[in-house]
């Protein structure tokens, strides 16, 4: 699998569609609360939004979709909610992997998996192995993931593999980051109305276009995704250059 150098070095071809979309799926609890349901009912419904978005990305031929499902900070939630979420992951792996495989999806899981129970760890590994030779959408689920963990983990891996080291460059480090198989996200979406990154892909989001919507994750449907894509199409990605430079580099002047 090829490694990508930072996508901020050159102004990319003006793609109308993002190649890589990364999403913080937030607002499940509030969705449930509004309906006088337990928070976990929101997580259950949120899974339906995941299914829909995956389908849409496959149809649109978006190459990479990365979803934040559980952060390294989410262990701080009430034990019952954490247990429910673990059960939901297990169930989703059992039910969905065959369908993802049929749809030619490559499934990847990023994050510190050592904290999960053995059964779940095994299912994650099996799912990745089953789908690794596919050629369609790469769907990455971030579980027990933290952006700071990712960077520190990468540094530690580098130290293990390349001793002794006096100084490292960005290029030395990036192969060890957990998303080294993908270009950096073009479009970041956070549902649920909060306007923060919450320790998601800190390194990789350096030049990503950020989109925040008040729509709660279980309500995030195709129309809501279309709006995010529309907003993305209107952005001008400059990566430090001036607007005029972009026009001349694209040959339209
Ligand atoms: C996001 O929804 C799902 C996870 C973090 C697992 P929340 O559960 O954070 O929903 P709100 O933010 O409380 O509404
Ligand atoms: C971020 O949502 C993590 C996931 C969606 C998995 P949170 O709801 O946990 O984020 P904060 O704590 O409100 O920032
Ligand atoms: Mg939340």
UniProtKB/TrEMBL annotation:
Q: Which cofactor does it need?
A: Mg(2+)
Q: Which UniProt keywords apply?
A: Magnesium, Metal-binding, Transferase
> Which major enzyme category is it?
transferase
Active site as annotated: 26, 74
A Pfam family per the record: Prenyltransf
The positions annotated for binding substrate are 27-31, 39, 43, 71-73, 75, 77, 190, 196-198
Cite the EC number: 2.5.1.-
Q: Which InterPro entries match?
A: UPP_synth-like, UPP_synth-like_CS, UPP_synth-like_sf
Which Gene3D superfamilies has this protein been placed in? Decaprenyl diphosphate synthase-like
Show the GO MF annotations. transferase activity
Q: Does the keyword Metal-binding apply?
A: yes
The annotation note on the cofactor reads: Binds 2 magnesium ions per subunit.
Question: Keyword Metal-binding, does the record have it?
Answer: yes
Q: Which residues participate in Mg(2+) binding? A: 26, 209
Q: How does it assemble?
A: Homodimer.
Q: What biological function has been recorded for the protein in this entry?
A: Catalyzes the condensation of isopentenyl diphosphate (IPP) with allylic pyrophosphates generating different type of terpenoids.
Q: Which PANTHER family match?
A: DEHYDRODOLICHYL DIPHOSPHATE SYNTHASE 2, DEHYDRODOLICHYL DIPHOSPHATE SYNTHASE FAMILY MEMBER
What does the similarity note say? Belongs to the UPP synthase family.
- Report what the protein is called: Isoprenyl transferase
